[in-house]
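Narrative of activities, Objective 1.

The group set out to show that a structural description can be obtained from nothing but a protein's sequence at a throughput compatible with the screening campaign. Below is one input-output pair from the validation batch, recorded exactly as produced.
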Amino acid sequence: MMVKVLIPTPLQKYTNDEATVEVEAVTVAELIDTLETKYPGIKNRICDESGKVRRFLNIYVKEEDIRFLDNTQTQLSDGDEVSIVPAVAGG
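Output recorded for this entry:
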């Protein structure tokens, strides 16, 4: 499945300054691994040492937070849009 991934500015240095990339993946976990293959070093910024998505990042598939779906096992469909969004705090 070909999906479009929206890359946040802090991670664009890994994607040759591309804000949007397309990869083939069936699940979010596979998407992250594919990103790592194409853009070495990006997975360490997305996932912690145990392979879980870092808590200061949110990943959305079609505007749905994967934490409320099947997390990294969330299935992807051809043409889906996946957003990687850094958490924002403030007050």
